[in-house]
Task: inverse folding
C-alpha cells in the first residue's frame, strides 16, 4: 500500500506534491520521491526513509515546474532502497504506482529481450518501460499508457508524465484507489481524498479500468478500451482528520473494514488455482528445502502468537508435520532442543518485535532454518531470515492488530497447503476445496463485517459494562477466543479471558454467574457438539451467552442470549470470519466507553524492549 499524487497546472508543484505525500504517509513510509517536468525535462529526486528525508533532498536539489508526480512507498517488491523508490523513469516516461503487478517476471523478461535495462527490483519499473516502448512506437502518452496496461495483470493506481508532453498527466486504476481533484486552472490526482483536501473539494473517484488524462484546463476519462466516461465531480465535505481515516471514526474501524482487501492482496499471485496449489517462490520458500524439515517452531508474541496457534492446527492437520508454538518472550528462557532439521517460522506484523527477533537469532545460532511471516518489508526479522513471506496488509496504524491477524492466518494456511502438497498429506481434492474457499473469503469477510456491524454494536452497548468477559472456543476457535479476549482487554480495559472451552470445567467455571457474559465461538465444525455441551454448562450457571455461530444454526439462536451469525465455510476458514465480530465487539465496547481506541494506554505498536 503506497500513496501517489499528481499535479498539472500553472503553479510550482513540488511543495504541493510533498504536502500531498505527507497526508498519505500513513499509507507507507519507507521511501519517497517526486518527478517534475521543468518545461524541458523531467527531473527526479528520491530518498530512502521517511518523507523528511525527501524534504531534505529537495532542499538541496529543488525541482522546478508545474507538472509532476509523487510517491510514498510501502515496499512490496524489492527492498526499500533509493533505486527501488518511485518515480521510476524509462526513456521519456516517469511513473508512480500503488499496487502489485502479478506478471512482472514474464514482462521483465520480454522487456529485457527488447534491449531495455531494468535497474530496480520493482514490479513498477516494468510498467514504466512498457509505456515508454509504446510511446517510442509513436503513440501519445494516453495511448501508450492504455496499451501498456492491457499487458499488465494485477492491481494498480498509476500516475504518469512524459518529457515529450509537458502539461499532461495520465492516471489510471484497477483495484487500488485513485481520486481526481478538479481545481481552477489546475488538476490533481491522489490515492485518497486527504491528499487533495486542502487544494480542492471537487473530486471524482476513478473506477477500475478507467484512464484519465489531465491538463491544466481539462480532464477526460475513458475506459481502457477507449470508451468515453461521463462523471460529474462530487463535493467532499469531510474534515481533514475524517478523510485520513476514510470517513471512519478510528483507524481500527477502518482497518477492520480493510480486511477483505488486505486478504486479497496477501493471496494475490500466490494461489495456483489450476493445480490447487501454492507457488513456493511467492511464499518465501525459494531458498528453503522443505524436504529437509522434520519439525516446525512457530514463534511470536501477542496477536501474532494467536495466529501462530491457528497455524499449528493448519500445519499439523494439512502437512502432518510436528509443530510447536512458542511465545517469543519465553523461548529463550528455556534451553530449547532445536537445530538442524527444524524450521522456525517467526510471525510478526512489525518484523521488529525484540522478543521475536532475539528468539530468531537464538534459533539461527543453533542451526535452525528461519522463515519470517511479516508485514513490514525489509524489517529486522525478515532481513535475518532465510526466507520471507510478506502479508500485504498495508500499514496498520491502530495499535490493536486486526487486518494483520487475518493476513497472518492466510500466510500460515498457504504455507501449510504448500507443505501438505509436497508431503502428500493433503490430497488434491481437499487442497482444491481450501484454495477455492480462500479465493472466496474476501467477499464473505466483507459481507460479515457489513452484516453484523449493527448487531454487534447493539450487543456491545448491552454488555459493555460487564467487569469480566469469558471467550470460549475449541480447535481453531480456541486461538480466536484468545484473540477476542486480547482485543477487548487492550482497547476497552475490560478484564477478559480466552479459554479452551473444554478447560472451563477445570477452573474458570467458578467465575460464571449472571453478571459474566460468555462469548462462545461455535461454528458448525468437528468440535461443534462438544462446544454446545460447554455452552449448556454456562447456561446452567446463569451465564449470559453471546454465540458466534453458523447461519442456520437454530440451536445456537435458541441457547444464546445473543447470536451473531457467519456463513458456512470450510472448517479451516472459520477463524477468518469468527474473528470479525470479536474485533467489532472490542471496538464498540471501547468506543462506548470513550477510551483511546487507536492508541490504548501503556501500549506501543512496535515493542522493541524485552
Ligand atoms: C495486539 C497486538 C500485539 C502484537 C504484538 C506482536 O493487538 O498488536 O499483541 O501482536 O506486540 O507484534 P508483532 O506482530 O509486530 O511482532
Result:
Amino acid at each position: 500500500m503506497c500513496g501517489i499524487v499528481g499535479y498539472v497546472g500553472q503553479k510550482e508543484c513540488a511543495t504541493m506534491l510533498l504536502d500531498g505525500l505527507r497526508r498519505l504517509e500513513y499509507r507507507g513510509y519507507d521511501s519517497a520521491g517526486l518527478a517534475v517536468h521543468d518545461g524541458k525535462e523531467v527531473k527526479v529526486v528520491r530518498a530512502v526513509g521517511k518523507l523528511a528525508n525527501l524534504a531534505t533532498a529537495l532542499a538541496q536539489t529543488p525541482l522546478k515546474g508545474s507538472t509532476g508526480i509523487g510517491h510514498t512507498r510501502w515496499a512490496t517488491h524489492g527492498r526499500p532502497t533509493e533505486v527501488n523508490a518511485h518515480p521510476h523513469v524509462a526513456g521519456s516516461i516517469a511513473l508512480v504506482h500503488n499496487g502489485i503487478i502479478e506478471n512482472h517476471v514474464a514482462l521483465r523478461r520480454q522487456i529485457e529481450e527488447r534491449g531495455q535495462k531494468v535497474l530496480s527490483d520493482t514490479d513498477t519499473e516494468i510498467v514504466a518501460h512498457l509505456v515508454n516502448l509504446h510511446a517510442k512506437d509513436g503513440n501519445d502518452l494516453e495511448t501508450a499508457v492504455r496499451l501498456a496496461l492491457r499487458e499488465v495483470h494485477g492491481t494498480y493506481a498509476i500516475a504518469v508524465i512524459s518529457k515529450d508532453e509537458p502539461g499532461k498527466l495520465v492516471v489510471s486504476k484497477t483495484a487500488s484507489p485513485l481520486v481526481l481533484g478538479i481545481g481552477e486552472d489546475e488538476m490533481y490526482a491522489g490515492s485518497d481524498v486527504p491528499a487533495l483536501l486542502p487544494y480542492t473539494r471537487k473530486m471524482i473517484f476513478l473506477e477500475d479500468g478507467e484512464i484519465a488524462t489531465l491538463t491544466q484546463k481539462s480532464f477526460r476519462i475513458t475506459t481502457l478500451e477507449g470508451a468515453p466516461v461521463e462523471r460529474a465531480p462530487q463535493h467532499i465535505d469531510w474534515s481533514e482528520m475524517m478523510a485520513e481515516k476514510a470517513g471512519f471514526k478510528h483507524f481500527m474501524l477502518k482497518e477492520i473494514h480493510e480486511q477483505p482487501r488486505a486478504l486479497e492482496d496477501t493471496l494475490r499471485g500466490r494461489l495456483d488455482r489450476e493445480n490447487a496449489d501454492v507457488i513456493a517462490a511467492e511464499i518465501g520458500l525459494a531458498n528453503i528445502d522443505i524436504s529437509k524439515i522434520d519439525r516446525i517452531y512457530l514463534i511470536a508474541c501477542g496477536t501474532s502468537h494467536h495466529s501462530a496457534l491457528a497455524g499449528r492446527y493448519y500445519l499439523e492437520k494439512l502437512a502432518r508435520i510436528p509443530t510447536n508454538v512458542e511465545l517469543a518472550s519465553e523461548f529463550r528462557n528455556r534451553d530449547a532442543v532445536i537445530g538442524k532439521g527444524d524450521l522456525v517460522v517467526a510471525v510478526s506484523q512489525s518484523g521488529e518485535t525484540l522478543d521475536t527477533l532475539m528468539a530468531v537469532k537464538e534459533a539461527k545460532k543453533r542451526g535452525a532454518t528461519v522463515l519470517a511471516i511479516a508485514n513490514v518489508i525489509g524489517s529486522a526479522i525478515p532481513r535475518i531470515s532465510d526466507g520471507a513471506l510478506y502479508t500485504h496488509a498495508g500499514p496498520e496504524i491502530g495499535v490493536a492488530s486486526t487486518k494483520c491477524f487475518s493476513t497472518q492466518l492466510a500466510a500460515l494456511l498457504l504455507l501449510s497447503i504448500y507443505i501438505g502438497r509436497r508431503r502428500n498429506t493433503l490430497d488434491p481434492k481437499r487442497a482444491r476445496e481450501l484454495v477455492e474457499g480462500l479465493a472466496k473469503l474476501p467477499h464473505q469477510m466483507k459481507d460479515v463485517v457489513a452484516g453484523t456491524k449493527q448487531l454487534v454494536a447493539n450487543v456491545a452497548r448491552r454488555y459493555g459494562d460487564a467487569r469480566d468477559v469469558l471467550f470460549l472456543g475449541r480447535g481453531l476457535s480456541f486461538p480466536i477466543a484468545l484473540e477476542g479476549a486480547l482485543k477487548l482487554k487492550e482497547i476497552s480495559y475490560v478484564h477478559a479471558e480466552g479459554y479452551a472451552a473444554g478447560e472451563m470445567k477445570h477452573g474458570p467455571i467458578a467465575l460464571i454467574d449472571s453478571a459474566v457474559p460468555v462469548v462462545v465461538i461455535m461454528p458448525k465444525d468437528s468440535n461443534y457438539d462438544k462446544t454446545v455441551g460447554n455452552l449448556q454448562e454456562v447456561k446452567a450457571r446463569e451465564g449470559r451467552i453471546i454465540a458466534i455461530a453458523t447461519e442456520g444454526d437454530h440451536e445456537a439462536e435458541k441457547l444464546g442470549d445473543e447470536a451473531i451469525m457467519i456463513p458456512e465455510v470450510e472448517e479451516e476458514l472459520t477463524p477468518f470470519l469468527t474473528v470479525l465480530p470479536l474485533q467489532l465487539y472490542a471496538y464498540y465496547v471501547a468506543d462506548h466507553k470513550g477510551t483511546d481506541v487507536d492508541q490504548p494506554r501503556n501500549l506501543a505498536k512496535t515493542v522493541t524492549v524485552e
